[in-house]
Design brief:
The complex is a heterodimer.
Chain A lengths: L1 H14 L6 H23 L6 H20 L7 H20 L5 H28 L11 H28 L13 H21 L6 H17 L7 H23 L2 H25 L3 H6 L22 H9 L3 E6 L1 H6 L2 H13 L3 E6 L9 H8 L7 E3 H4 L8 E5 L8 H4 L18 E6 L19 E5 L2 H17 L1
Parallel strand pairs in A: 1-2, 1-4, 2-3, 4-5, 5-6
Helix pairs in contact in A: 1-2, 2-3, 2-10, 5-6, 5-9, 6-7, 6-8, 6-9, 7-8, 9-10, 12-18, 14-18
Chain B lengths: L2 H22 L6 H12 L3 H10 L3 H31 L14
Classes of the chains: A alpha/beta, B mainly alpha.
Chain lengths: 487, 103
């Protein structure tokens, strides 16, 4: 019993107040188990074989935490239930019917929801200090007010920022960077003003007129922050927003003295941070450069470059070359996702493996619009995951590889990144497709890729271009292969 | 700086380090499900939202709290479901193909 009492007392910090009721003890225990389950969930996610168990552990943890929270005394449930119903009505259909190609959009939207929850809770907290049904004003401590201000700042800017990212990914908004003169300076002034308002609030918490100013500036900054970001930088930005959303949840835990919130938010924050570092490294760029560089602006292409010739081929020719190959490496990119070509890729994969040809997929970390995007699409098409190989592990195999097939990828296979110091992508690690005996690239046209950079790979002697929609071309190749097998 | 804050900071720092160590080991192949799972987990803010919506200490608090419950619960339901949908797709090797190739 003594132990339980101590537990309840320590739990006072965990859940806010210090009364040692049985309910409280129950709540604390559920929170501790939930925290452990969340950590296990991420641990089990490390490998595909245990990943589903991890997801299950996360669900149990969440269920326990919600039950624990609902046991809190003096709660009336009607509005909570309204919230649950609304949330389930939005969340479930999205999860069931959303096509896998829309995963980046959904992820951006879910960051928006998470951040919105944090901002709303923070706002409610703030006003409850001054306006509540007891009629008493509780003055928040300066520390708490400072944390609350950061929570609301991060929550609000992540909310609008994620909505902007969603708009760009869904192509409601232009995916090219939107820039104007003095943009970075303007953005910094807005952010500075938001921070100054936060500081002022921390010093004078009762100046309630400052709070809407903070909200307004933060939401505005969120929009401004994402405006100049182009589609190719979305993987980094989504990861960064993920980190912010987690951080704001964690800060909420600081305000409430709820350690479960602190832990879960910190895990999310850490995950977002790791992913954004991975993404930045894969592009050889810094955070600052991603956020303020407006990469992928319409660059006035160096006019008058000499016309170089490319060799263009048909699916039939491509299938003959592949038929004679021993090993083929496919390099998928965003173009595969746009064309929804993954199922046709699978058909081609089947035809080739039937012949005993070794087919692998080379995955660049920033291929697509979010971390891991290509893997999910290929897994959806039921391509076994041991065929999906990370860039660093597969690059050594290209010199022995007969055919490198580039499907809708561009900058990640541009050899200019290796040697052309003037190229915007110089120094970016790339997939060594050019080292294969034959390179085939499926592309709509010769228009330069997202970053607006010419790709010298297409002009190489060992390169054959397959012009057209990725789905149609890959489908054509698969059909040719199937027919030749039937003879 | 009060003691509560210091305690919370301890927890935060330790959890962040643990998170970095655990998540570093996640295969890059699973980075998309990782993001949707952590997103669902961070919707734990529903706990705070439940408190605010349920205590009903002011009308504004009820409105904001209910919306926050809805937003967080969207991520919980959607996040776990979509993560499972994605993870189900990752298969090592399907059973040997039904009919071997004709030669």
């Amino acid at each position: 019993m003594y132990m339980l009492h101590t537990l309840a007392e320590t739990g006072g910090t965990l859940a806010g107040t210090g009364d040692a009721s049985l309910q409280k003890i129950f709540e604390i225990i559920t929170y501790i188990i939930a925290a452990v389950l969340f950590i296990l969930a991420l641990k089990w996610l490390s490998a595909p074989t245990t990943a589903r168990r991890g997801n299950f552990a996360g669900q149990i943890g969440m269920l326990l935490a919600i039950v624990g929270a609902l046991m809190g005394h003096g709660l009336s449930y009607q509005w909570i239930i309204v919230g649950f119903v609304l949330g389930a009505a939005i969340g479930a259909p999205m999860a069931i019917w959303m096509p896998m190609t829309a995963v980046p959009q959904r992820t951006a939207l879910s960051h928006a929801f998470g951040a919105l929850a944090a901002a709303l809770v923070g706002t409610a907290h703030y006003y409850l200090f001054f306006y509540n049904n007891t009629g008493l004003v509780e003055m928040p401590t300066h520390t708490n007010m400072a944390i609350l201000a950061v929570e609301v700042l991060l929550g609000s800017l992540t909310f609008t920022g994620s909505l902007m990212a969603f708009g760009k990914l869904q192509e409601i908004l232009p995916t090219r960077p939107m820039v104007f003169k003095g943009q970075n300076l303007f953005n910094f002034v807005i952010l500075g003003a938001a921070i100054a308002t936060g500081v002022a609030l921390a010093i004078f918490p009762d100046k309630t007129f400052l709070f809407p100013v903070l909200l307004g500036l933060a939401t505005l900054f969120g929009v401004l922050l994402i405006m100049p970001i182009g589609g190719a930088d979305m993987p980094t930005v989504i990861a960064l927003l993920n980190s912010y959303a987690g951080l704001s949840a964690s800060l909420m835990g600081f305000v409430l003295g709820n350690k479960l919130l602190i832990i879960a938010g910190a895990l999310d924050g850490a995950s977002g941070l790791i992913l954004s570092i991975v993404m930045c490294k894969a592009m050889n760029r810094s955070f600052t450069n991603v956020l303020f560089g407006a990469f992928g602006q319409v660059q006035t292409a160096a006019a008058g470059h000499e016309k170089k010739s490319v060799r263009s081929g048909t699916p039939e020719e491509a299938s003959q070359i592949m038929d004679a190959a021993q090993s083929i490496i496919v390099i998928p990119g965003y173009g595969m996702a746009v064309a929804q070509a993954q199922h046709k890729v699978r058909e081609m994969f089947d035809q080739l493996t039937k012949r005993g040809i070794d087919v692998k997929f080379a995955i660049h970390p920033v291929a697509g619009r979010m971390p891991g995007h290509m893997n999910v699409l290929l897994a959806e098409a039921e391509i076994p995951y041991d065929r999906l190989v990370e860039m660093d592990d597969i690059n050594g195999e290209f010199p022995q590889c007969d055919v490198a097939l580039v499907i809708g990828a561009n900058d990640v296979v541009n050899p200019a990144a290796r040697h052309d110091k003037s190229s915007p992508i110089f120094g970016m690690p790339i997939i060594d497709a050019d080292k294969a005996r034959t390179v085939m690239a499926i592309k709509r046209s010769m228009n330069p890729g997202f970053a607006g950079i010419e790709n010298e790979l297409y002009y190489a002697d060992n390169c054959m271009m397959l012009f057209g929609d990725a789905k149609a071309v890959v489908g054509g190749v698969a059909k040719e292969l199937a027919e030749s097998a039937a003879h | 700086m009060n003691l509560d804050f210091a305690n919370n900071l301890y927890v935060f720092v330790l959890a962040a380090f643990l998170g970095l160590e655990v998540i570093k080991r996640v295969s890059p192949m699973l980075h998309t499900p990782l993001m949707s799972l952590t997103n669902a987990i961070s919707a734990i803010s529903v706990v705070a939202a439940i408190q605010i919506a349920g205590e009903g200490r002011s009308t504004l608090a009820i409105i904001l709290g209910t919306l926050a419950v809805a937003a967080a619960f969207t991520n919980i339901v959607g996040g776990f479901m979509i993560t499972d949908r994605m993870l189900k797709m990752f298969k090592k090797r399907e059973a040997p193909a039904a009919a071997p190739a004709k030669h």
